Amino acid sequence: MKRPASVVLALALVLVVAGCPGSLDNPEAFIDGGTPPKDADTVFEGTCATLGCHDDMTEASGLNLLPPGVADRVVDQDAEGLGCESRKLVIAGDPDSSYLLDKVLGRAGICGSRMPPLGILSDSDTEVLRQWIIDLGGSAGGTPDGG
Predict the structure, then answer these.
(1) Domain boundaries, the chain
(2) Which of 87, 106, 86, 100 is nearest to 129 (CA)?
(3) What's the pLDDT at 34?
(4) Which of 59, 63, 95, 117 has the lowest tally of Cβ within 10 angstroms?
(5) 76 close to 88: Cβ distance less than 8 angstroms
(6) How many CB atoms lie within 10 A of CB 16?
(7) What are the residues whose beta carbons fall under 8 Å from the beta carbon of 99, sequence distance 6 or more?
(8) Distance between CA atoms of 70 and 44, rounded to whole angstroms?
(9) DSSP code per residue over 80-100
(10) Largest CA distance in the chain
(11) Dist. CA 59–CA 105, nearest whole Å
């Protein structure tokens, strides 16, 4: 009677070990439960290009941040607001000189209020925009869509 029990136990052990998934090739993609990482399109669409703000209907301050084509509408474009017209919304590759990031961070010298007006972007969303601006500068043969 002991023999069948040990055979069943051994078989169960083999099945458990054989079914072990091992390791992932990309564990960083699953750290937060498998949610895909955000990109600039997602950040713009969820926080900036909302109804009544920087969408394709309202274009607050003349700015449409609704993807696609955001990069074409912001790179090397002048900011609006008295005293800020000489600032460029986005300077490809240079987030620290890009007015769009100044508005998101609420830096001194911005015209009007910090954006978005009903809250502050998370550090991770801000970093997504910063990296997007950096990546725009790495493009050969023109500005990528990026938005």
Answers:
(1) 38-147
(2) 100
(3) 63
(4) 117
(5) yes
(6) 9
(7) 79, 84, 87, 88, 89, 90, 110
(8) 9
(9) -STTTTTSBSB-TT-GGG-HH
(10) 91
(11) 21
Q: What is the DSSP letter of 38?
A: P
- Tokens 């051994």 belong to 10
Q: Kindly give the parts of the chain with pLDDT less than 50.
A: 1, 16-17, 19-20, 140-147
Q: Which two tokens stand for residue 146?
A: 């990026």
Peptide bond into 68 cis (omega under 30): yes
Give me 91's structure tokens.
């300077």
Q: What is the pLDDT of residues 65-108, one digit of tens each?
A: 999 999 999 999 999 988 899 999 999 999 999 999 999 999 99
Sequence length of the chain is 147
The model's pTM: 0.70
